[in-house]
Amino acid sequence: MSESKNKLLGDMPPDEFLAAGGNVLEFINSYFDQLESLPVLARTEPGKLMEQLPSAAPESGESFDAILADVERLILPGVTNWNHPNFHGLFSTSTSGPGILGEALSAAFDMKSMLWRTAPASTELEDATLSWLRQMLGLPEAFEGIIYDTASVSTMHAIAAARERAGLNIRELGMSGR
Question: Which of 57, 71, 154, 160 would give a disulfide with 148, using CB separation of 3.0 to 4.6 Å?
């Protein structure tokens, strides 16, 4: 691999970025290797992390190795392991190796996918993905969709769409319909 001439990684030189990235991937891999032996629920009490953190922001940053050590020592005890095979609460998770790597790419591109002009590739990839899903489900071509970032937003949109379809005229008649 040739040496990177990249100067756009903020305060992190490219060689440090590559080394830290490799360390992060090793950390993630190790986490998944030991996941089944970890407790499902966090091993902490309210306020425990706050007690261990400095009361004021540090005046200078730490090495990425020190940050990863802090994640293991301070953060992991306060993590509910949603990926644990015995975690059956709230809703299922969908973490996968390709998903983790995809998130890294997404973070690097930092796309603001609010409309085609701000993110043509993202917009068209969403359209293609939804078209494939529509075809897999055997739905007519008239069906369209949106990929949401959270279940809460999608639920709110579904409720708003159902309200509009019911023709309640809430803007004109109010919630009571009078």
Answer: 154
